[in-house]
Amino acid sequence: MKKLIPFIFLTVILFGCENREINEGEEFRPRAVKDNFEDTHFTKIKVDGVEYLLTERDNNNPHEGFGFMAFRANDLMEKQDTIISYLKAMQHFQNMMYSRMYGITADSGQAAFNEKLQEFLLLENKELEELEREDLTN
After folding, report:
1. pTM of this prediction exceeds 0.70
2. Alpha-carbon distance 129 to 125, whole Å?
3. Which residues have C-beta within 8 Å of that of residue 104, sequence separation ≥ 6?
4. Crossing angle, helix 73-102 and helix 106-137, to 10 degrees?
5. CA separation (Å) from 95 to 32, 52, 87, 115?
6. 42 with 54: CB under 8 angstroms?
7. Which residues pair with 44 in a beta bridge?
8. Would you say the C-alpha torsion 19, 24, 28, 33 has a positive or negative sign?
């Protein structure tokens, strides 16, 4: 009997969580997405400094995943500019150290860096093209 009570309780809870219409008798009528978003309600969430916009949920079933999500690139672009500036500064100081270590001019060190960068970019592009070809054949 003691084992039967938790089973009955669990069964009642599981069958009690039925997805019901909020307005009984009303049919599902999704709203069309328009080019003008002035009258659209967005829920804004922020994850790792990036702001995401979610459209208003359906009024018949607000707990269902209906709508779309997009991210605002304004904060992302600011972070991207910061990262690019940081990488350029690091590359400049590494070039200075490389030049002093090998007793060459800073221009020669920069030229060696640019050659190696182009080599790796070409290699990366080649790998991406091969992956795209594999995806097209599959």
Report:
1. no
2. 6
3. 98
4. 130
5. 55, 39, 12, 13
6. yes
7. 53
8. negative
DSSP string, 69-86: EEE-HHHHHHHHHHHHHH
Query: 3-class SS at 106?
Result: helix
Q: In 3D, which of 46, 44, 63 has the Cα closest to residue 54?
A: 44
26, 60 contact by CB (below 8 A): yes
Measured between alpha carbons, how far is 33 from 36 in angstroms, rounded to an integer? 9
Total residue length of the chain: 138
59 is written with which tokens?
A: 């009024």
Tokens 């500019």 locate to: 81
Q: What is the pLDDT of residues 45-89, one digit of tens each?
A: 887 777 777 775 555 555 555 556 676 766 667 778 888 899 999
Q: How far apart are CA 15 and CA 38, in angstroms?
A: 41
Tokens coding 74? 């304004």
Find the radius of gyration of the CA atoms of the chain.
29
Q: Is 25 exposed, middle or buried (0-12, 13-18, 19+ CB in 10 A)?
A: exposed
